[in-house]
Structure formats: structure tokens, C-alpha cells
Amino acid sequence: MANSSRVTEFLLLGFSSFGELQPVLFVLFLSLYLIILSGNFTIISVIRLDRSLHTPMYFFLCVLSTSEVFYTIVILPKMLINLLSVLRTLSFTSCATQMFFFLGFGITNCLLLGVMGYDRCTAICQPLRYPVLMSWRVCAQLAATCIVSGFLVSLVGTTLVFSLPFCGSNRVNHYFCDISPVIRLACAETYINELVIFVCGVLVLVVPLIFICISYGFIVRTILKIPSADGKRKAFSTCASHLIVVIVHYGCASSVYLRPSAKSSSGKDRLVTVTYTIITPLLNPMVYSLRNKDVQLAIRKVIGKTAVSLKTL
Q1: pLDDT of the residue at 265
Q2: Residue ranges of the alpha helices (H) in 170-279?
Q3: Of 2, 143, 184, 219, which one's alpha carbon is 20 to 30 angstroms from that of 47?
Q4: Per-residue confidence at 98, pLDDT binned at 50, 70, 90?
Q5: How many angstroms separate the first and last alpha carbons of the chain?
Q6: Could you give the CA distance from residue 240 to residue 287 in angstroms, rounded to a whole number?
């Protein structure tokens, strides 16, 4: 593409360097995608159908699972198509739209994990005031704040990227329109734009993570005061699932987005990104269903009711 021409579409290189392994990757990623959808839809359905799970913790888990579903829908279908297609182009508008929704749902997930940490802290450290502090109205307001804030920050980031002129190469060294690989293609000075995006990254990643760490500090202090070993184990088990998801999600996202310059981006980012675009949404329902006895019991109850309903037909 000539340097004087304006970029109207982007070419997603994705996993093209893997050559003949792409059909194998297609089967692998398609299988994981179907597991992600079925796992998260199971969590959402069970929480909605079982009244015993109508608590703040499971409300936020339901919202998180819903966000994870849309988060993967934004990225994975196009990635799967590109693995089997020679034509891997995406229009300028489609690329911006994909980035906006990917960042929106991704940031929403980060903020929700922070709120879920606060919920666990309140439940363990202030059990008597918990029903008041985490009323349904408060829960709805917190969830709405996470969603609105996530998409406002996403709008800022996407605008900062696509307000730049693109008049050179259109080859995106990634499998979707992420910030670093796209902004590297701009044919103008990007320092200010990258600095603002970096500050936004700090706000949505570091601040919630610090908040989670403080929450768990109070949780650990409270758990250590519990006299019985069984009581300590039970209290910690309610936080373990959340803690595992937090470590994986924040660890991978921070390694990619908490860098002051997109020029440090490399092909390794694709492997790291696979972790939080595929593994984390996959991990979320698996961790909460395998480690959580309440969810396991609710799934059995729903399956039992469904079986009885089918027999009566």
C-alpha cells in the first residue's frame, strides 16, 4: 500500500506463520470456544434458576459470566474464520468496533473482579452488616458502574488510537485489533496518545488490583482470628476461586497493557493474549463450578428438575 494512501482496511496476520498447523489450531480453539460458551451459559442459567444462589456473590458472578461470553464473541469467531481463510482483512470501522467492545468488556471484567473482592471482604469481615452494605440496590449500582466505566474508558482508548492517521502498512501482527499492534501502524507521533492509554491502563488494572490486595489483607486478618481450623478453611474456600481468576487475569493483562510504549510489542503478546481471551473465560466457570459446592449442588438440582420435566412430557 502506498504511503500516500489512507488505510481503509487492516490485514490480521494472526497465526498465519503457523502454516499447516492452522487447521489444528482451528479445531483446538473451536473446542475451547464451545466449552467457554457452554460453561458460562451453565453458570448464568443455574444462578438464575436456583434461588439459593440469589446472593450478591453469585449475582456478580452471573454478570461476570455474561460479560465473558460477549468478550469472547467479539474476538473468537473472527479468529476462527481467519484460521481457515486466506482473506484476513477487517475494515477500518470494523477494527475500531472490535477494539471498542473488546476493551469495554475486558475493562468491565477487571472492575467486576475488584467489586467481587470487596463483596468477599464485606461478607467475611462484616457479616452482620453485610445485608445492608451489599443490598440488591447497591449490587445493581456497582454492576452498572463497572459496565458504564468500562465502556467509557474503552471509548477514550479507541478514540485515541483511531484518531491517528493510518497511511502506511495495514498489516496487524495479531489475531484481532488490539491497541499495541494497531497503534504501531500509525504514521504520526503517538507518544501523547500512548501515554494517555497507559495512564488509563494503570487506572483500570493497578487501582482495582490494589483494592483487591487491600481487601484480601483484611480477609486474611479476619480469618486468622477464627479459632477453629475448619472455620478458617471454610472462610478461605469462599475466596479461593476468585483469587485464582484474579491472578491469571491481572497477571496476563498487566504484562501486555502496562507498558509505556507499543514499540515493545512482539509476537509473544499473541501467546499471552490467548491466555486472557481464551483461558481466563474458560477458567472462570471451571474454577467456580469445580471448587464451589453450592454451584455443584445447584447444577445437580437443575439437571434433576430438567430430567423430571422431560419424563412427564
Answers
A1: 52
A2: 179-183, 191-201, 207-224, 229-257, 268-274
A3: 219
A4: very high
A5: 63
A6: 9
| Average pLDDT of the segment spanning 86-114 | 92
* 73: Cα within 13 Å, side-chain hemisphere: 13
Q: Are 306 and 104 in contact (CB under 8 A)?
A: no
From CA 252, how far away is CA 282, in angstroms rounded? 14
Query: What stretch of H or E contains 281?
Result: helix 280-290
Per the listing, cell 478514540 goes with 159
Gyration radius of the chain over CA positions: 21
The whole-angstrom separation of Cα 100 and Cα 116 is 24
Assigned C-alpha cell, 85 = 481463510
Q: Confidence class of residue 253 from pLDDT cuts 50, 70 and 90?
A: confident
Q: Which three cell numbers stand for residue 56?
A: 450478591
Mean pLDDT of the chain: 85
